[in-house]
Amino acid sequence: MALHQMKPNNWKIKETRCSATVSSGKRCKLTVEAGDYLCEHHAMDLPHFVQNPNYVAGLMKARFPKRHHPACDRKGQNDCSCHTFSNGALAVMSLRESFTKSQQLSPLYRRKRRLEHRLKVKKIRAYYNSITEAELWMPKDSGFRQFRFFLWDDKKERMVVRVVKDNFRHKRTLLKWLRKLAPLHVYYTTSAWLNPEGIGPDPKGKHGRSKMKKKGWTLNRYHDTMLYQGLYFDVDYDNADYNEGAHMLMKLSENLDEAIANTEGNLYFDHLKGDELRVFSGGKGFHLVRENWSSTEMNKEAQKEYQEVSASEGGNQAWSKEVKNELISELKELDCELLLDWEVTIDPRRIIRLPGTVHGKTLRVCTITSPDDFKLVNGRWTYNASPPI
Known about the structure:
About 35% of the residues lie in helices and about 15% in strands. The chain has helices spanning about 45-50, 55-65, 85-105, 105-130, 170-180, 210-215, 240-260, 300-310, 315-335, 340-345, and strands at about 15, 30, 65, 85, 145-155, 160-165, 185-190, 190-195, 225-230, 230-235, 275-280, 285-290, 350-355, 365-370, 375, 380-385. Among the domains are: about 5-105, no CATH class; about 230-389, Alpha-Beta Plaits, CATH 3.30.70. The chain is built from ten helices and 16 strands.
């Protein structure tokens, strides 16, 4: 592959825009000087590695300095006690990353990626045209949930997120949009909201106010009123495959049952009784859902007392976080080896994959499982996954 294929036109004689793409799939907005095609933050392809391997290794060390334990919840902050990568390991990681970056900048790779996504969209559209409403599933109070569709934009060559301005109270509405958009991924909010189509950023967050101002939204309460949040667990944390996820799912389910049995009268577990959904994501992970559980249906006196003594008026959202943090602490005491993305359980603004829709990477359907789908083999649970569409 010729190096000039990876560089923009006239890059040697004038400033050009960085050729790299960021995590969202959009192109980097930074400008680079004449004679280069990647900014200082993305100069990690093979030519840059050959020119200055120490610089590329330095970038890798700044971003991924530690070999985190799977249960570590400080991966983004790196202020934990996990072991740091050695210089040799960083050098190997940098070389591997340089090959990946060079591949992504290749026109041949971009063409292959476009063709793959076109084929996926074609298969997904055909699947949604072949099913009926009976094969879909809707969450409780679906009219108060936001549904997000992740679509492949062939012109922009990246995934785009679309929030449809429609009320999804019925399966026929969902099926209509699935057939029209043929999304690669479909998610819904784990919380019910007063204004599901216009959920704003957390106004108490780091950049909440500036994001609200950018959207032109001035009524914080209108865009920030959570009605309640259900109980969701995302079992998709460093799983090698879906059988590993299945084993972790069953461990979680057993611990929840044990917590209910052993903590009768406990504020946080009294409302865990009820139907349990075990959902296969279609990828490597699973979701455990207690739909009938609601943070606002718990002990009203305890909720009122918490809000009175709380330093900030967070309403239902603050109370829900308080409950979930206590619940997670109880579960970790029962089994410290539970490896889950706990933020999905805690954060009121999290989204989760919708059962009945296609997983765009594997082309398997996200499915509500039955007990017969799981089998205990040599002391470990396995899962019988359906083939891709």
